Amino acid sequence: MTASAVKRSSDNFAHHRGGAAKRRNLRTDRDGDLVMEGPKRDRIGKGPSASRGRGGSINTAALQREVLRHVGSDNRTGGPPRGPRPKSTAQSSLSEIKITGWANSKASTSPDRGVSSLITFLEKHASKRGSLFRQNGRSPAQTAKVRSSRVEGDNLYITVPSEEVSVYAKINGFVFAGQKITITGDGIRGKSPQIDNASPEPANDIKQIFQDFLGRRYNADSKLLSLNALASDEELRAVGIFNTTTTQSKFFPALMKICEAQFQTAQEKKDTIESVTLAENNLSNIAPVTTLGQTFPDLKNLDLSGNKFESTSAMIGWRHKFRHLEHLILSNNPLEQSQPGWEVEILQWFPRLRMLNGAQVRTEEQVAQLNQPKKVPLLVRGPNFEDDGNIAQDFILKFFAGFDGDRTALANTYYDATSTFSLNVNTHAIRDPTKHEMFKKQSWDAYIRLSRNLKHLTHPGPRSARKFQGPQEISKVWSQLPTTQHPSLATEFHKWSIDCIPQEGVPDPSGQYPQGVGGFLITIHGEYNETSSAAGAGTMQRSFDRTFILGPGGPTGVRVVSDLWTVRAYGGFAAFKPEEPQQNQVVAGVPQIAIMGGLTPEQEVLLAEVARATGMNLKYSKECLDTSGWNLQNALATFEAHRANLGPEAFA
Amino acid sequence: MADFESIAKQFVEFYYKTFDENRANLIALYRPQSMLSFEAQAFQGAQAIIEKIQSLPFQKVAHRVDTLDSQPSSETGAILVLVTGALLVDGQERPMSYTQAFQLHPEAGTYFVFNDVFRLVYPAA
């Protein structure tokens, strides 16, 4: 490479520029920007990374070049344009660029002052940056090659293919052998070195124009970015943005990119811009502005009025975007006439939409329900509890108090030699998304080695080893499990779901009744806190399902025949809430009229019937029904059983 | 006779497969003395139970069994089965958690469902 080999006169090229710009209008260059001119496809199904990938970057780079041709040369340098200009075709033109700042590098002691290593350095880094221009099936950019070079004083001039100038721009400010180098030349802006991120940025002057534009169009008080009637914006027109379809189609994505760059975090963006209007833009579909959905996914208000949408399909790319959109304006679009029922479709697209064209379409309550767990499609009712003489209720109260308190005593009270207990862990259970427990790491160490999940446990050995029988075995296993605190059955009953069903044929330990005796099947769903665990401190909230078979026997007259316990991640108690309001607990001294409050018509009839049949007052009649599951016969039986103990106050 | 764990497992697999494919066929598992508690609504007898099951407001359903455990529960060879899992109905995006307790009673070398206690423990979100 001799210094003078390809020395070119700036003037030779400068006057070609206008013609080059015209002829290049719809040509591709090596960066392939015209690939973007193909059919527009919306990006449904692509994640945000796809939308910010190379396509977008190249779009911007292409825009930059397109717009630059309209804007004129790099005016900030003041003087006449310097350096070579592209020739009539992009492929064959060469450009000269100047490198300074290397003269005092560590490599400067070598005979050529480090120039050859500097050129290698430039080629290497330019090639790496050049690879970013690969896209959509096109062959990778060739290795950047410096065609010729010359040194004048402390300046190195290199000649490179014009279309590669932009990759050299990207390594402007790189450190070569301890010295920061500066690269200047036509098409290279004074780029600060730290802005060397992966994607090409719009040139600073275009950036400035766009930033000024955004500044003019943003209203901080209403957090509104008005992109109304873009084509009639004087300043954008002045720079020729809308002169060609090419620049026009690239304008919006570039604008969004610059918008995006203004914010450090998504939250900041969300807090700054809540509303966007794109009214009066003559849009027949959203293709030119579809990137709005990626840049402002959390938008609350969007005005698309006065466009040319003929049907909702014109905006299909935004279906299920804008998940927090509250107000949408589509007035003065043809679809209002041409697509009856368009509103219904729009409502489905945007689940949190409250206002459409200024009219309320959903209430706050309806939207709030979206954030609540749904109770569809199965109807959830209050517990089914058939319990003669409060045997089961008494057991449940004592059982959980004992389980939280003294498990050994509990085992000895309710479990005999034939009682069985087993435990399993449901590690797949759905967690409650409203609780912080959702995000806690679920550690099942204390349980899992005892877990008897027959779905996975297939060998008879472990199956048998994880079924525990008799109070000794059972209390020993319980002692290995984390200590617990269950919510109060008296004051936090809403956190429980308990069913109790009478059972026949329950084993009789006395052997008196070989066909078995009466007992109960009790199913309990609820939650507890771990107050300690073998693993160490830290309180964990769990949900559980526990099923008991109760039969007669044992020291209290009631014994556990079977105890099956499933432990799972905390899932809350939303599922236990009855659809119908439950009767309130009767409080002593409450006026009789208040007792009637909250009752269903059926319950009022039952209450009146019990009061009539027993002669008790409403308060006692209701208590009686409460303890009898609002079953008339049970209530009358309960009354008969307790009649002798009732004082005169029951009948007053 | 197979051990009660294997019976429980076979039963659970059969029950949910039938439920998900054609729930009307579940009637074969119930008897006149069978009882279903469905979210605390009680139904007795195979006919009432199957009517309830068929009237559930969804077309397609898929059960996923997460845990299954069983214990013998009576002198006469009854088996208590506790299942927890998730179920997905029709177009719902998220599953619901359910638990179901079965009491299986032996009958002439086979078993029928004596008690069936179903409850959602976590609704769809």
TrEMBL record, chain A:
TAP-C domain residues: 601-652
Gene Ontology biological-process entries: poly(A)+ mRNA export from nucleus
Stretches for region Disordered: 1-58, 70-93
Bias kind Basic residues: ranges: 15-25
SMART domains to which the protein is assigned, alphabetical: TAP_C
Classification via Pfam families: LRR_NXF1-5, NXF_NTF2, TAP_C
Coiled-coil blocks: none
GO molecular function, one term: RNA binding
One GO cellular component, as annotated: nucleus
Keyword set includes Plastid: no
Ranges for domain NTF2: 391-567
Biased composition (Basic and acidic residues): 26-45
Protein's cellular compartments: Nucleus
Database matches in Gene3D superfamilies: 3.10.450.50, DNA helicase RuvA subunit, C-terminal domain, Ribonuclease Inhibitor
Keywords attached to this entry: Cytoplasm, Leucine-rich repeat, mRNA transport, Nucleus, Repeat, Transport
Function comment: Involved in the export of mRNA from the nucleus to the cytoplasm.
Family label: Belongs to the NXF family.
Protein's name in the database: mRNA export factor MEX67
UniProtKB/TrEMBL annotation, chain B:
Coiled-coil stretches: none
Keyword Ribonucleoprotein among UniProt keywords: no
Signal sequence residues: none
Keyword RNA-binding: no
GO biological process: mRNA transport; protein import into nucleus
Listed PANTHER family: NUCLEAR TRANSPORT FACTOR 2
Function noted in UniProt: Facilitates protein transport into the nucleus. Could be part of a multicomponent system of cytosolic factors that assemble at the pore complex during nuclear import. Has a role in nuclear-cytoplasmic transport of proteins and mRNAs.
Keyword vocabulary terms for this entry: Cytoplasm, Nucleus, Protein transport, Transport
Pfam families: NTF2
The NTF2 domain, residue ranges: 7-120
A Gene Ontology term for the protein's cellular component: cytoplasm
Localization of this protein: Cytoplasm; Nucleus
Organism of this sequence: Lepidopterella palustris CBS 459.81
Protein name, entry field: Nuclear transport factor 2
